[in-house]
Amino acid sequence: MTAQSDLVGRFPRAAASLRRAQCRPEIELVEISAPTPRAADSVAFSATVLEPVSAHPSSQGSAEDARELATGRFLLIHAPDRGAEWGDAFRIVTYVKAEVERELGHDEMLAQVAWSWLLEALDRSGAQYIREGGTASRVLSEGFGQLADTEEYIDVELRASWTPRGEDLSVHLEAWADMVCTFAGLPPVTESVTVLRR
User: Fold this and answer.
1) What's the predicted TM-score (pTM) here?
2) 144 assigned to some structural domain
């Protein structure tokens, strides 16, 4: 295999590794159309964690009626011309959003905690990365006019990116998916902990 053909094959191998990721059963992960930047290959996934219908025994609703606990997007970009900036030709760009309890939403440390959830998930999975960066936000929504009776709610949003090391990127997607579950309020899964379905 020549150096040129190896470079050409990097993205298909990396994308294939993402498609082999084994994520938690509570999260619905779907490959979606990626907003392909000019002169770059990319692959994207959407993630949704729904509140189990069984969480409300009195409800006669279906899975379509389940409330979203957290949503997110995961994008892998391959752009060799950005290697000097990123430290490699690959960059992972992500977004997560979840509604949080009012008390937690008003905590000044929430943004810092949200960022730490990502780094802890990556480190726990053994994912290797460099040049990580991101922003975390608290979004307060209040109703006015005809929506004045709408209860105030707070969303936490995390936008983050990092440069993955290696070509088997499945651990990066698995770690990110685990972090989305954390945003949704689900307990972490470790070898010594079994998650009981609600």
Assistant:
1) 0.82
2) yes
Domains in the chain: how many in total? 1
Q: Where are the alpha helices (DSSP H) in the chain?
A: 3-19, 83-86, 102-105, 110-125, 170-183
Q: Is there a domain that residue 174 lies in?
A: yes
Specify whether the CB–CB gap between 83 and 137 falls below 8 A: no
Q: Print the domain residue range for 16.
A: 2-51+66-184
Domain membership flag for residue 46? yes
User: Which amino acid type is present at position 86?
Assistant: W
Question: Facing residues of 41 across strands?
Answer: 78
Question: Mind listing the pLDDT tens digit of every residue in the chain (198 residues)?
Answer: 444 445 568 999 999 999 999 999 999 999 999 876 555 699 999 999 998 755 555 545 555 567 889 999 999 999 999 999 999 999 999 999 998 766 655 567 788 989 999 999 999 999 999 999 999 987 766 656 666 666 666 788 999 999 999 889 999 999 999 999 999 988 876 654 444 343
